[in-house]
Amino acid sequence: MRTHIAFFIALATSAFSNSLLAQCNAEQDAQALYALEANLKIYTLENGLTVRLLPMADKQTVTIASQFNLGARNEAQGQSGYAHLFEHMLFKGSENAPGDTYAQQLSALGARFNASTHFDYTNYYVTLPSPALELGLYLEADRFIRPSLNATTVKNQQETVLQEMAQTIDNQPYVRSAMAFLLDQVQGTPYGHGIIGSREDILQATPESLTAIHRAYYRPDAMQLSLVGKLSPQTLQWIEQNFATWPKPATTEPRFTELHIQPKQVHAELVDERGPWPGLLLAWHTVGKDHPDAAAIQLLESYLFQNTASAIAKLSQHNPAQMLSYSLPFELENHGIANIVLVPRARTSLDALVQKVLGLVTQTQQEALDETSLCALKQVWLNHRLQQLSDTQALATLLSATSAQDKDNPFSAQWQRINAVSAGDIQRVATKYFTQNYVRLDLLPPWYIRWGKTLLEWLPGDMSDSLEDAVL
């Protein structure tokens, strides 16, 4: 039950670009998205619940995925981590399935189930044998509509969350401090605190305060329900029996507008006595996932940092300056942060790594991609999406994360915006967003490791590499 994703999008293309796309099979391969979409049935219940059904007759299982418009951004001051804590609670009893009944019944069927909380939303899934679909819908509706919260289960899940916090954040070098630093960059916004929350806030949670979270945000008009797999002819009837009586609240959902952050150049150092080696984080403020520039930015990030044929990977093929590079975009509805984390070789300073990355960005700003490279980027995006088509869990989760602009075409609309991006678009967003107003965070180990690293930077390359190999 951990945090975790989404894909960015935008517009514009040319006839020549389309001809090259056909050569790399992108247009032909994309037909699978349209074919899948043709089988999709979309319904809206009277209480506002959106339902998507995607039958796949060749499957023996069905996935039920649900997403709610509740994430860390909705939490009030002093209640950080409550959305995530409440997610845990939904596995610990409801009115008609008390205690561990939910987990016991589904485990007995060989079902898989889990959930995750993010800044913008919380999602749930269960994949179970198709003959158990009626039971699965009953259990999902019962826990979403009628959860059972008491002091004992709240205390147990507080301890579980704190253990998770210790294992994934506090016991890992750099993570807690780096997370706090990044959140400081968006202080004063709904995203200014971590998803897992603070220890102090988690310990203050009560059944009453968590019930208030449920009452405010677990509502049918803030939910998307998707079923993918072998569906019964009675599927929609079962959904209506279990979910249609769920009343829609009289109040409207809260809305969050695009963040207006003025980027500025930031350089900070973070020293962690547990750190095994230096590292470097570079980040740029970008846009939310529904912004017109999002697709071009996504392809730009892929080109620079995110696949085995990226610019940073090509730069490192023969004489790499880093041992590791990793990029995971900060994907939000109302904001975006492009980033890359690098771990340098012994002979390479952090300053040298920064210059290499900035050099790649500058080159992209000055020289438009050739159409073959652009085509390859689009093919990579499409291949990733196509890999999900046979996995009912991935498909159902993707459908439940459909944005409002894609509600009628959840598969093809995203592809169409990616396909419309031109080389000029990528050059434009590189110039507009990847400016000198970037965030730099130096992740530094204890002084004696830093001292040894500095010494290795001054040694001849062959000697430095030999010592590095011996140590590693």
From TrEMBL:
Q: Protein biosynthesis as a keyword?
A: no
Report domain Peptidase M16 C-terminal positions.
Answer: 205-374
Q: Where is the Peptidase M16 N-terminal domain?
A: 58-172
Where is the secretion signal located?
1-22
Keywords carried by this UniProt record: Signal
Q: Which family does it belong to?
A: Belongs to the peptidase M16 family.
What protein does this entry describe? Answer: Peptidase M16 domain protein
The protein's GO terms of the molecular function aspect are:
metal ion binding
- Which InterPro entries does the record associate with it? Metalloenz_LuxS/M16, MPP/UQCRC_Complex, Pept_M16_N, Peptidase_M16_C
